[in-house]
Design goal:
Number of strands: 5
Number of helices: 1
Distance between the termini: 19 Å
Number of domains: 1
Mean pLDDT: 96
Strand order of the largest sheet: 2-1-3
CATH class: Mainly Beta
Helix content: under 10%
Length: 61
C-alpha cells in the first residue's frame, strides 16, 4: 500500500480515510514533505493552515 496525500488538508497517509479531516479524497501525485512537530509556533504551519502534528505534502496534484 503506497502513501497518498489528502487533497483537502495535504496530510500524508496509507489509510483510506484522512486521519485529520476525515476526507476520502486522495492523490498519489504529490511533492515535497514537511514534518510538523510544533504547529502552534511554526510559521510554516501557520502559512499552510496546519493545526496538528504529522506529515504533510507541500503540493498535491
Amino acid at each position: 500500500m503506497s502513501e497518498k496525500a489528502c487533497t483537502n488538508c495535504h496530510f500524508i497517509t496509507k489509510e483510506n480515510v484522512c486521519g485529520k479531516c476525515k476526507s476520502s479524497n486522495f492523490s498519489e501525485d504529490f511533492s515535497g514533505v514537511v514534518v510538523m512537530f510544533d504547529p502552534e509556533t511554526s510559521a510554516i504551519a501557520k502559512a499552510m493552515n496546519i493545526k496538528e502534528k504529522g506529515r504533510y505534502a507541500l503540493k498535491v496534484r
